Amino acid sequence: LHMHDPCMNFQCKRGHICKADQQGKPHCVCQDPVTCPPAKPLDQACGTDNQTYASSCHLFATKCRLEGTKKGHQLQLDYFGACKSIPTCTDFEVAQFPLRMRDWLKNILMQLYEPNPKHAGYLNEKQRSKVKKIYLDEKRLLAGDHPIELLLRDFKKNYHMYVYPVHWQFNELDQHPTDRVLTHSELAPLRASLVPMEHCITRFFEECDPNKDKHITLKEWGHCFGIKEEDIDENLLF
Fold first, then answer.
1. Residue 6, SS3?
2. Which of 10, 91, 113, 175 is the most exposed place for a label (fewest CB within 10 A)?
3. What is d(CA 48, CA 198) in angstroms, rounded to the nearest whole number?
4. Which residues form the EF-hand domain (predicted)?
5. Three-class secondary structure of residue 193 per DSSP
């Protein structure tokens, strides 16, 4: 008979692995960075300590070993890729950021809606019916590198097309746990993938949390993207 593996369905957070103690009880211990999968140059990750790690696995394993220290508490994944100089985001740039971000979210949904075996089943039926209305609208601004003036004009003219994409992204991020509030760790995957291209995203997320309680509610998120109060609706999170 095969011995039952106590770690089989035991979850540990990133940077930790499961080990069975002498009584056979599972518990989490820090992962040794040398046990991380072999990393390719594209796997590099930049930490908030401005150090480049071979991969996010190496970063979180290092963070685990520093647990209980100030350095360990502060170390987070900043963005994917080697550390580089990220320019400061100006007031003018952060004001423009929601325009590009809203358009980007709408275009992602259009891609997920189009027939593609890679994206098959990504959207559920309720989501597909919402996206279909936008997709079939003849006034829809097609994807492209549009000037800010055009994005602003389109938002005013076709505002209704942007309401659902903003709710959809909130719902996608609100996963651990699903509690209608976004935390730093829930925002991290989106932020980490966008920082090298969109240097204003960190400041944008900070400004989405005006009361600085480290939680972004659906209402705060909607306001950040210019969605009117009466259009921010929990029933759109499905």
1. coil
2. 91
3. 17
4. 196-231
5. helix
